[in-house]
Design goal:
The structure is a homodimer. By secondary structure, the first copy, chain A, is α/β, with parallel strands linked by helices. Chain A has 16 helices and 10 strands. In chain A, strands 1-8-5-4-2-3 form a 6-stranded parallel beta sheet, with helices on both faces. A two-stranded antiparallel sheet of chain A has the order 6-7. In chain A, α15 packs across α16. The longest helix of chain A has 23 residues. The model of chain A has no long low-confidence stretch (mean pLDDT 96). Chains A and B meet through β1, α8 and α9 of A and β1, α7 and α8 of B.
């Protein structure tokens, strides 16, 4: 196990009706004027926004609003948010929504107190400080509610980049599974896929003897495999929603990823797809992950055989563990199909003729310098091959 | 799943050599004068104390020392520590040791800034504030390094009571698995048993549909079952020590225990044993737990069958799941024996003639009002029966 530090000081309030306490938590973390940042009209239509405003009014905390966050949140709105926060002397940002609203809020939080262009952080500049951020989560997926990460799409060129820092880790996150019950099955399944990706990408490690975090990841995967189909079958299943919501946070707060190398290749390769085609991130991952796994499998067959056996219930072929490994990848791929996820470029709306462009952008982004360095080092040709496996 | 809040703001520094940064972390959390609180001479003999002092001197932070913490830490030393902290204007307590040194430090931290008798907190008074506490952990067991809990033995009457509060949650915990390599196998096994108890007592719940936390607990148990025997075989196995150390923290920071009722019966019943006979807490648990399980099994046979199957690899007897449940309890009990833990009163040094006294104290302590309320409500007669099963 590698040396590490772990710090997760977010306060979580979990369960039915907890959004009613949003104002109380803003107060607890010293907010005195709030930007409520959210996405589409669904938080308005559902009455959620009104409940949150009422909770702020109850503790006499003034607020301004900025809606309009889109999936794969854009830099343009972040600049708007920064201007608004400065003009209104905002000292607390309350994100209401899923990963997109949260990531956009984190970007605004860091950008507001920074003299330069906020995009610097997404090109690798460390985030030193930020306004405090609180969350009311409406979809279990990104894990952004318990992480210090944010991903934004730059509109000039349409590419996605990530930034990280303790300063943008949420002060509190309100997790009410009821708020996710109105999500359509497709979006729910995208969330499930994203959570499984966060687990798989921590699982695919080159660090040896990491049994504790392996077992934690496997446990969370098993929970997702149990609860995923239950919630697709019955979107109102509160208990299944609750189990997925907590698993989604645990999958990405990194308690199960510490002390081991991780593999963010699938996220890297997917980001190019959702940036260019504006597809759902989870849907993109569903197409990308099985391809990456099949391409990388030979790098460590026993690791793939292990997850196949422990998570997917495959029998070990002791004479040919590669068969077990492949069986596990197929079981994962079949699972994604069973919850309604796309299988290939076509179903995703991606185009074969873009493969070279996608591969180049994935390998020569602001962070990657010619290759994606994860479980296996993937150069541009490797990435082209992987995209081709998705056709 | 029940509503819950979860807040775990401890900063963890994990890995080789991390104790060299103790001074840096005290500084980070605003300590300006430190009480170093520790147990026996082993931290002196190993040179650990010197390394910690050097790290404090490096950042020019003055300190005083108080050693002498015993296993099952006593109230007497806590009073001494409180006096010392007041006299020396201490503003930070650094615990160097295992659960005992940590729990004693937490008690001193709360008592120093409280006008009354610190024991009030161990009779149920909420802890409102405390001096900040930092940890250098030397045994993986209690999980106190990541929890807001403390257990102290009152010398008048020799009984153990616990206190909890966010204020006594450590600011930082330094977890270097190397520091645990000098532990004798018996103490190592006691730690493994304590960690498994923290997992089992969260697992035995009356809350339904808690798949995510079930799976996390099972995963951590599986890791302990894998790593435990490896470290008993070879005490210098750093990797096994590291896996156990992180599992020990995760087992008790409550991320796998949220939203579900828990069952602290075994800890309650054991505390009477280690208080009266001064046996190791883990050794006491090894004797208590299988008895409690057999006594409680009929309350929910399927839950015991589940852990038997998922963790202990038992085949399900679909015609008679009670057989599976029993097989799982036997597998657990055999595991404890295999790592050198005692099986009964005699091996523990406990006496049959004390059973009535032990049972009465367990059921009528400061917290329990005639019964232990966990997975199953146990009255005095139940507890007597359970103690008798340990003969």
């Amino acid at each position: 196990m590698d040396n590490f530090t772990f710090y997760s000081p977010t306060y979580f309030a979990f369960g039915k009706g907890t959004e009613m306490d949003a104002g109380k938590y803003v107060q607890k973390f010293n907010g005195s004027k709030v930007l409520i940042h959210y996405g589409s009209g669904s938080v308005i239509r559902s009455g959620l926004l009104d409940r949150i405003k009422a909770s702020l009014e109850k503790v006499s905390i003034p607020y301004v609003e900025l809606g309009g966050v889109k999936p794969n949140p854009r830099s343009g709105l972040v600049y708007q948010g920064i201007d608004l926060c400065r003009k209104e002397s905002i000292d607390f940002i309350l994100a209401v929504g899923g990963g997109s609203a949260i990531d956009s809020s984190k970007a605004i939080a860091a950008g507001t107190v920074y003299d330069g262009d906020f995009w610097d952080f997404y090109e690798g500049k460390p985030i030193e400080k930020a306004l405090p951020v609180g969350i009311v989560l409406t979809i279990a997926a990104a894990g952004s509610e318990g992480s210090g990460d944010s991903v934004i799409t730059k509109e000039e060129g349409m590419f996605k980049r990530g930034a990280s820092g303790e300063a943008i880790r949420p002060k509190f996150s309100i997790l009410n599974p009821e708020l996710t019950q109105t999500l359509p099955p497709y979006q729910t399944a995208c969330g499930i896929t994203d959570i499984l990706a966060h687990l798989y990408e921590r699982y695919m490690t080159n660090t040896e003897e990491v049994e504790t975090t392996d077992r934690m990841i496997e446990g969370l995967m098993l929970a997702m495999i149990h609860e995923g189909p239950r919630v697709i079958e019955d979107p109102n299943n509160y208990e299944a929603r609750a189990n997925i919501m907590w698993a989604g946070m645990m999958a990405h707060n990194n308690s199960c990823g510490v002390g081991r190398s991780q593999d963010w290749s699938s996220h890297n390769i997917e980001h190019e797809l959702s940036a260019l085609y504006d597809c759902a991130h989870g849907a993109g991952l569903a197409v990308v992950m099985p391809a990456v796994m099949r391409y990388n499998m030979r790098h460590n067959i026993m690791r793939f055989a292990q997850v196949a056996t422990r998570v997917w219930g495959c029998q070990v072929d002791f004479n040919n563990p590669a068969r077990t490994a492949l069986e596990g990848i197929k079981a994962f791929s079949d699972f994604l199909t069973s919850i309604g996820m796309p299988k290939n470029f076509k179903e995703l709306g991606a185009k074969e003729e873009d493969i070279n462009k996608l591969s180049h952008s994935a390998c020569f982004g602001d962070v990657n310098k010619g290759s994606i360095n994860g479980f296996v080092t993937l150069n541009e040709e490797d990435v082209q091959n992987i995209y081709r496996m998705m056709l």
